[in-house]
Amino acid sequence: NLGEIEGVAVLGNKIVVSSIGDDDNGTNSGSVYVYDLDGTNEVKITASDGAEGDNFGSSVAIGSSSGSSSS
User: Does residue 40 come out as left (phi exceeding 0), alpha (psi in the -120 to 50 range) or beta?
Assistant: First the structure.
């Protein structure tokens, strides 16, 4: 469940999707998912110091060699 989606970024065969409503580290702590465009190879990223209300992933961007997220 992606929760509340805040942002999406696409480059080449990768898509980055933010889910600020994700609750792994507390209510609305947030997370970011990275997929291949065909929907495979899901990688979920959460903040190592995530806490309730952080909204990690409130903006996302992807560059030619990496993705990034900020809260």
Answer: beta
